[in-house]
Amino acid sequence: MRAISYLSATHPDARPRSPAPLNMNHYANKKSAAESMLDVALLMANASQLKAVLDQGPNFSLYTPTITLISISLCLQVTVGILLIFIVRWNLNDEQKHWRLNFMENLATGLVFIIVVVNIFITAFGVHRPNHSD
């Protein structure tokens, strides 16, 4: 049996096996899952930054703008997470839903861009943990 499969695989007339066709639903779900994991990581980082700013208190020079930006970022991240849940649940092969899925993907991408810009400002304002000297 082994010799037959070897010969058929190396025979000059043997055709190479073509790869399986790409399952667009599977691909889109994996992409959305990866995006969701990154969203969760950023959500945790923003929650940590929020705690650090709250620990510093209102005496921190950029307290209000930083709290506002972190809050905006957190709200946008939750919105993107909800969008990704809906995107994953819909069948990509249903052509009647293509326009809605396309809109939601574009919306999610735009919101992620805004989240990145907001987080650049949060980083620029320099959120630091307060020094506790006991």
Automatic annotation (TrEMBL):
TM region positions: 67-87, 107-127
Coiled coil: none
GO CC terms, sorted: membrane
GO biological process, one term: cell adhesion
Membrane-topology annotation of the record: Multi-pass membrane protein
Pfam name, any one: Ninjurin
Entries under InterPro entries matching the protein: Ninjurin (IPR007007)
Domain of life: Eukaryota
Keyword list, A-Z: Cell adhesion, Membrane, Transmembrane, Transmembrane helix
Subcellular location: Membrane
Assigned protein family: Belongs to the ninjurin family.
Name under which the protein is recorded: Ninjurin 1
Taxonomic source organism: Amphiprion ocellaris (Clown anemonefish)
Lineage, opening ranks: Eukaryota, Metazoa, Chordata, Craniata, Vertebrata
